[in-house]
Amino acid sequence: MSKTNSSKVLRMTILAVLIALELLMAFTPLGYLKIGALSISFLCIPIAIGAIVLGPAAGLTLGTIFGITSFAQCFGMDPFGTAMFAINPFFAFVICVVSRVLMGWLTGLIASSLAKVLKDKKAGKYYLNDIIAIILCPVMNTAFFLGFLAIFFGGIKVMGLDVIPMVVIPALSINCVIEIIACTVVGSAVSITVKKIAKI
Questions:
Q1: Which residues make beta-bridge pairs with 41?
Q2: Which CATH number is 40-198 given?
Q3: Which of 31, 55, 135, 154 could form a disulfide with 150 if both were Cys (CB 3.0 to 4.6 A apart)?
Q4: What distance lies between CA 99 and its chain's CA centroid?
Q5: pLDDT-derived band at 200, boundaries 50, 70, 90
Q6: How many CA within 13 A on the CB side of residue 132?
Q7: What is the pLDDT at residue 119?
């Protein structure tokens, strides 16, 4: 097998493993920490790893899967998502799916763009572009999700809750911080290790 074909197989294998991990996390307690109406997600971690290691297309693919599994929660698996879907299915789709598609794709795009700028991999700067992109991944997830939520449901009560003061603001202070810490610690360690071992 040529080096090119071997590299393709390796990349496809990594992507398949990340997809399997993402699906496992999406439908088990591994992927979400639920606090009342808030749902803290750790699914940014495999998305960030895929986007960093494999590029924007992988980030887009993994982000889309996250979005679809998130939207699936609106069919009785998540009370808040189910309530959103009951009010407006299209808005619920945009909030759950479009936000995650954008997040995955942009994470890969940012990482690949920064790689062209931050080429110095000396001590202290090794894979700095990856770490920056990994931090931005959960930030964008929170920003897009809560941004769409505020736009579409800002003046509407969902599950009896005023969306902006009772959901959006608490999520900005709780969800975002926890997701950034988890994604940065785990995502950085795994993505850098994978790139070293696989020489990607």
A1: 32
A2: 1.10.1760.20
A3: 154
A4: 9
A5: low
A6: 15
A7: 64
